[in-house]
Amino acid sequence: MSEFKSGFVAILGRTNVGKSTLVNLLVGEKVAATANKVQTTRTAIKGIVNRENSQIIFIDTPGIHKPKTMLNETMVETSFGVLKDIDLILFVIEATSEEIGRGDRRILEKIKESGKKAILIINKIDLVKKETLLHLIDIYQKEYNFEAVIPISSLKSKYKDIILDEIEKHLKPGPAYYNIEEYTDQTLRQLAEETIREKALLLLQDEVPHGIYVEVEKMKYRKNQKGEGIYDIEATIYCLRESHKGIIIGKQGNMLKRIGQSARIDMEKNFGTKVNLKTWVKVKEDWQEDASIVKRFKLQ
After folding, report:
1. Does residue 178 contact residue 185 with C-beta atoms inside 8 Å?
2. Percent of the residues in the chain that have a pLDDT greater than 70, as a whole number
3. pTM for this one?
4. 253 falls within a domain
5. How many CB atoms sit inside 10 A of residue 90's CB?
């Protein structure tokens, strides 16, 4: 029997290149928010993959972008801060790039500084011709000695084992750091907050800027009259403007109801139990500059 391997793998990339979708595909559970918006992931979320001969711990980092607020600065700091403690980097880029853009160049320089082993993942290959893809591969291979280059479309499950097999090849022998039943080290409260925020971003589309965060104020487990387990969850969605509050609540409370229902369905699936969810909306104008809130998004 081959020796058991383990390691920490950071997923780096610009905002919106499909990192979180990739994490969810590889882990097989929904651990990262995947709304199609800039900065959906705000903290370094760990997803755990247990295989026959290995345990792979994925760290999905916030997308690299130009920081404009204290929150943004913290997110970028978190992304680059993980590099010192990981064994391997998955660098995700888009196949539609014709050259190395400013954001990708910044990440590439950080990878070079770290000197860590890295695998280049080229996502969204269904959007380009083969010649474009080959040109992109050539450019990047001249820049860094990647262990492998894997072109993918992250929504297709056939790439899952290809990537996991390649990662496993480059890990060192080591112990299982987490119980093999676990797939994330996020608490249920964090998962609940992530789920509500993702549903809000998906349903609101471009109507409300990205300035929302969710806080679960109460989360209590009980048995109902039939003896079934149920979580009572009370959560507040904070936004930056009074006008945003009206949009999030919607006409006769319809939008907030849709957000809550959609989040509840996901939570019940993830938690394996019934959920009774109540949500409120409050305005907190400068929360992105509030150190006591922003510190939650720092790498733990």
Report:
1. yes
2. 75
3. 0.57
4. yes
5. 25
